[in-house]
Amino acid sequence: MQFDITIVFEYIPFLLEAALLTIEISILAILVSIIVGLIIAFFKISKFRILQKISDFYIEMIRGVPLLVQLYVIYFGLPQIGIEFDAFTASVLGLGFYAASYVAEIFRGSIQAIPFGQMEAARSLGMSYFKAMEKVILPQALRHSLPPLGNQFIITLKNSSLCSVITANELMHSTSRFASVNFAFLEFLLVASVIYFVMTFTISKLVNLMERKLSVGERRSL
Questions:
Q1: For the whole model, what pTM was predicted?
Q2: What angle separates helix 12-45 from helix 185-221, to the nearest 10 degrees?
Q3: From 3.40.640.10, 3.40.630.30, 3.40.50.300, 1.10.3720.10, which CATH number describes the 24-169+194-221 domain?
Q4: Is the dihedral of CA 147, 149, 152, 158 positive or negative?
Q5: Is residue 137 over pLDDT 90?
């Protein structure tokens, strides 16, 4: 069969709809990763040995098991013990918990990069440890962690293509389905590649814009 890109044209609206679902899954997954990653980061820097061990175990275990296997466990494995998720929820949880192992290290590094004297100064003003962390340390750490968090968001969006194996109707799943029906794999994959590129390029530019605005605000405050 000859190459014919026009075959894809009538499916563009469906591919764009699937791309929107991909973005939705990615946004929710990154929110999960930020919440879980922040908790794991606090465990990591805690003075309690047991919490440090828990964070180390989580990071090493999640990073040591392929994301594809984790998605299979959540979607196909957990129903055997009575825990069942639909494909959308399983995708969000799988991507979120996987990304959290990297987000945790981003937060840990950003928090520990803040001079300890700032914590001491906040405590000397009567703030509790958690209040000082909330008002002084975390705002600066979040600003410093924005670039790597942006990169992680892009990685999570690209990793969402693996969710096609658990029947989540995101971009890759729709692309494969339409390509199989029309026997036009190259045409559909090329168009999907363009859509993925547009999404990741847009996110990259938005992160760069936010980073510049935060840098300007930081210089003004100085």
A1: 0.88
A2: 50
A3: 1.10.3720.10
A4: negative
A5: no
